[in-house]
UniProtKB/TrEMBL annotation:
Domain Myb-like: 29-122
GO-annotated molecular function: DNA-binding transcription factor activity; sequence-specific DNA binding
Domain HTH myb-type: 29-71, 72-126
Keyword presence, Repeat: yes
Protein keywords: DNA-binding, Nucleus, Repeat, Transcription, Transcription regulation
Gene3D superfamilies named in the record: Homeodomain-like
The protein, known as: Uncharacterized protein
Entry annotated with the keyword Cell membrane: no
Pfam family membership, one: Myb_DNA-binding
Record-linked InterPro entries: EOBI/EOBII-like_plant, Homeodomain-like_sf, Myb_dom, SANT/Myb
Gene Ontology cellular component terms for the protein in this record: nucleus
DNA sequence: AAGGAGGTCAACCGCTGGATG
DNA sequence: CCATCCAGCGGTTGACCTCCT
């Protein structure tokens, strides 16, 4: 039974628990109080209802979701940056659809947003490539082609935007990719970008930073026809925030067809 | 200008596991 | 223990927007 009263109790507990300055997130998890309510808490609740009324005709669940995914002060909105795309690909390759876990590593991004990104971009491209997103073929493509390429683009963009980059800018209205200087590209220290994912082509230092100059040709391409890389690079400047261009898809389709 | 197609993203649904009585 | 509750999670839906014809 979900009475109006319980709905609003839920709502206020939800809002109160989340707090305005201690948002939900990795190391920002607030210690949630459990157990019986104290008289003081009851009093706060009663005062709240006296002032604001019983509130919205919403379930606590709905309010919680709205808060976490939208209203929280530090929620970042807008385009997923190249660096974030890279992290998502890497973390997903390790953790699968553990969206909340992945979101913990992207400050300000919600699991919902990452999930939407994956479904609307990555799955779509897998479909275009006629690959099962869980197939080794597709995973290898991500690992040995897409991710090194993303890093190349991050590096290229950083040299272009030298001195103007930030780790995570507020993307509310940004129109160009927010990138990070490769030397400063930080990866969650608990799990630095694994070299096995990157193949031999690139590496991350033990501190979790991408070492400048460490990016080389993706090994899968070294073994194959490198002229294809030059060809695709010649006709693409990779200037956008996204690698999911038609040209790149064609290139990958060709690559996969050759396997 | 209209409307259809496709993409995006906020919100909802249903399940699960941990907490609580 | 056991039943119940509920927060949190991943999957799915649907409203809205943009682009194309």
């Amino acid at each position: 039974m979900d009475t109006g009263y319980t709905r609003n109790v839920h709502m206020m507990r939800t809002l109160s628990d989340c707090g305005s300055s201690a948002p939900y997130g990795s190391d920002e998890h607030m210690v949630m109080k459990k157990g019986p309510w104290t008289e003081e808490e009851d009093s706060v609740l009663i005062n709240y209802v006296n002032v604001h009324g019983e509130g919205l005709k919403r379930t606590g669940k709905s309010c919680r979701l709205r808060w976490l995914n939208y209203l929280r002060p530090n929620v970042r909105r807008g385009n997923i940056t190249l660096h974030e795309q890279l992290l998502i690909l890497d973390l997903h390759s390790r953790w699968g659809n553990r969206w909340s876990k992945i979101a913990e590593e992207l400050p300000g991004r919600t699991d919902n947003e990452i999930k939407n990104y994956w479904r609307s971009r990555v799955l779509k491209q897998a479909k275009q490539l006629k690959c099962d997103v869980n197939s080794k073929q597709f995973r290898d493509t991500m690992r040995f082609v897409w991710m090194p390429r993303l890093m190349e683009q991050i590096q290229a963009s950083s040299s272009h935007d030298h001195g103007q980059t930030t780790m995570f800018s507020n993307t509310q209205a940004h129109t160009k990719p927010c990138v990070t200087t490769p030397t400063m590209l930080s990866v969650p220290s608990s799990h630095s970008m694994s070299s096995n994912l990157m193949g031999d082509g690139c590496s991350f230092s033990s501190s979790g930073s991408l070492e400048k100059g460490s990016i080389s040709t993706p090994c899968i391409l070294q073994q194959k026809d490198y002229s294809k890389v030059e060809a695709v690079e010649a006709c693409n400047d990779f200037g956008g925030a996204d690698l999911w261009t038609d040209e790149n898809i064609c290139f990958l389709q060709q690559l996969l067809a050759d396997d």
